[in-house]
Predict the structure.
Amino acid sequence: MTSPLLLSLKLAAVVSVLLLALGLPLGYWLGSTRWRGRFLIEALVGLPLVLPPTVLGFYLLVALGSHGPLGAAWIRWTGHTLAFTFTGLVIGSILYSLPFAVQPFAASFAAVDRSLLSAAATLGASQWRAFRTISLPLALPGVLTGLALSFAHTLGEFGVVLMIGGNIEGVTRTASISIFDSVQALNYRAANHAAIVLLAVSFVLLAVIYGINRRALRWGMR
């Protein structure tokens, strides 16, 4: 049976990879588009930053439940429910951690010197080649920051996970929920052990990413 910590690490890893695939195109578009209505998309992406987790978790539970649009479609397709499953946790975590990935992505792409892209286009480079050889390498520090933030945020999330996943051991019982259960049972020793592990993992991850970004910034200044 998967331990709460391993389940949290697995969830954070899966969500981070999916956010890279989904958030990178969105972040690139937000960072480069001149559309005046861009602020509406930015507001939509940033909603999880201001919404209480219980509000987001409630609407996700309604949508992913057996009578919800996504949940009902999932049951017809697979024969299984979507709420209170690991897959449901992944979907909810992607939405909840989306701004922590997309906003750094967008900011890093927006900072890319457009004259370089114009020069590449003048030399005949396609938009994809310019993205691959110019935009993405220059925006890499922001991309790594977004990945680190989304991983750490998913690793420690509690409210949304509890709302749409419950507390099923080995399936949806993450480390944060395990800590809450230990505190409820007045088992502070177990809660402290789990909390220290999460604290250490998050600190090391962020320290490594910020160290890489600092080196990248120094290299760019040279």
